[in-house]
Amino acid sequence: MQNSTLITSGIVSAICAAALTVQWRRNAGLERELETATEAVAELERLAVAPAADLLPGPVSALTPGAPEPGSIEAAIAEARAATTPEERIALALSRIGTLAGLMGEDDRSPAEIIRALPDLLRVVQDLDLEEMIAVAERIDAPLEMGDDATGEGVMKMVLLMLAADQDPQRLLENEEFGDSRELRHMILGSLARRDPEAAMAWVESAGLKGWERDQVERAAVMQLMRDDFPRALDFLASKSNDPQEVFQTLSMITAMGMAPELEHQITAAAADPANAELRDGLMKVSFAASVSTGGIEAAKARAQEFGLDEAGTAELLLGNMEPLLALAPAESMDWLAEVTPPERYETTLPNVIKDWARADFNAAGEWLGDQPASPARDGAIASYAELVVEVNPQAAATWTKEIGDDERRLEAVGAVMRHWQNDSPEEAAAWAEANGIPWPPAALQPAAAPVPLPE
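The chain above was modelled as a monomer; its predicted structure follows.
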């Protein structure tokens, strides 16, 4: 098929976006599904695959806060269902699926043409109830796949079952045909874990699932438990592992998944609870990260003070969150790091942190570095900074190396810069070296290697 990968991935995105739209129309309270559908449609529109208005079965305004009341949507669906029998609705859905799948199989069909054919199918799908969705899926003779090799029928079969799973996941798990599909089973278990975490884990136990699939279900269950009952989620995690680091890794997903704002209070309260003493370090890290994401450096400072940490403990939390802090308040974060980090650790840490900052804004990083007092940490940071700056401004990098106080470190740093500069522009490098009293060629900047003894 011409551009088969593009067509398949585009259709999967489009159908999933539209399917989520149907799901939202069934329950206007599913805010995340609304957001996901809107994002997916916007992305398709950005790629100029098809206008958003052509993709959806109704006006785009139906996906906005100004959408019709749920009652009017339900009334429209009920009216459409009253005019047909279940068998007629099933037959019509199969016909629309066949038409769309046929378009997908034609070499001269573009993704845009195929996506424009979606509304006819979606108008039919939104009128199907749970039993009818399952009946349509059972009559589609295609493997359950969502990858690049999937057929049009297979993709739509998967989407129908995903919609059905959201209504009754356990019903689909009990179906041998559907339950044998590892990919679909994973999606169904995810739906069940979000709806009823304990039921999902009970099913996992009864089915004897192991490995990554079990881990994924447990993770989805924990994420939902955290939203519903955070102390219970901690108890569940503790029951699964005696290793606080493993628990912390799971808790870290709170920030990664954007859950920090809604859970910040619960996390902080759990960190202060003596019953969670073994998990306190991990909870403090997650709470601190949540403070950074919701309130920036001032909130992070307040949180560190609330925990009553010494400077070393504060530095530990700070170093784990330098990336977001450098994006929010770089100079203030660097000053805080210098203030609380023990000297020995600061000397080894500063070179890496300054390089991270310089990648985003080497001018601001250089300005801050120039204001720091002479120290071994500053020497290391200058060498690291020059190593990055030489890629864009060799002369500035070479000038920076002259600021290094330690003779051996300075010789090593200027040698590295000059060798790079010599490769790019040997004449300019030689002229700068002569003007600044730097030995030339750069090989002269390296200590002479000890002679290799000849074999007797």
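Residues 343-370 form the longest helix (28 residues).
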